[in-house]
């Protein structure tokens, strides 16, 4: 059994209570993973600021990064959450499974992004030269590269928080895939 409870609104600081209220208003509930950040006085607010930062990536591109990183890091919580968000961004179930596998055959630019993200995540920040070259050849810029790397870091934080805490998944469970390898 996990040592980590999912804190309720009454169990968190006043600052975090206000964030819980905003999340409930915006999303309809406080996701368990976000609530878990509230074990810290500042982590939830800091994480949401990072997660909601402006980026050159589109909503679909962000979900490609989130899905691939969560697959590589084997985070069932984030796979499930981002499967739901991916559908809200217009991806089909089949496309989401393909993306989680590090490919997007239905769109050349998305395919280069998915392959790059999988490669850089598996290789812990040291992608193969071909993956980086394909990323740029697909039309991505240096600015897009930095935004992609920041998002990989963002998602890795959440993957690690869930990996350690194992709080219950409160999204429809995403299907399991084989672990990603390059």
Overview of the structural elements:
It is a single chain. With 182 residues, the protein is mostly helical. It has nine helices and no strands. Helix 4 runs parallel beside helix 7 (108-122) and helix 4 (59-72) crosses helix 9.
Number of helices: 9
Structural class: mainly alpha
How is the main sheet built?
Answer: none
Helix fraction bin:
55-70%
Mean of pLDDT: 96
CATH topology of the largest domain: AhpD-like
Strand content: under 5%
Bulk shape: globular
**Run of helices and strands:** HHHHHHHHH
- Total of domains: 2
Gyration radius from CA atoms, angstroms: 16 Å
User: Any low-confidence stretches, pLDDT <50, length ≥5?
Assistant: none
Task: Give a concise summary.
The protein is an all-alpha fold. The protein is built from 9 helices and no strands.
């Amino acid at each position: 059994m996990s040592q980590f409870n999912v804190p309720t609104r009454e169990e968190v600081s006043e600052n975090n209570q206000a964030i819980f209220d905003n999340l409930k208003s915006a999303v309809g509930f406080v996701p368990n993973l976000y609530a878990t950040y509230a074990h810290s006085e500042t982590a939830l607010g800091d994480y949401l600021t990072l997660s909601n930062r402006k980026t050159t990536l589109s909503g679909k591109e962000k979900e490609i990064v989130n899905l691939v990183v969560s697959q590589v890091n084997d985070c069932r919580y984030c796979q499930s959450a981002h499967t739901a968000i991916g559908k809200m961004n217009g991806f089909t179930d089949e496309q989401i499974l393909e993306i989680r596998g590090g490919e997007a055959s239905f769109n050349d630019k998305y395919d280069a992004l998915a392959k790059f993200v999988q490669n850089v995540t598996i290789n812990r920040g040291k992608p193969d030269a071909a993956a980086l070259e394909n990323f740029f050849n697909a039309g991505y810029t240096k600015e897009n590269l930095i935004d992609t790397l920041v998002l990989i870091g963002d998602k890795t934080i959440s993957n690690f928080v869930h990996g350690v805490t194992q709080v219950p998944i409160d999204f429809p469970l995403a299907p399991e895939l084989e672990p990603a390898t390059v």
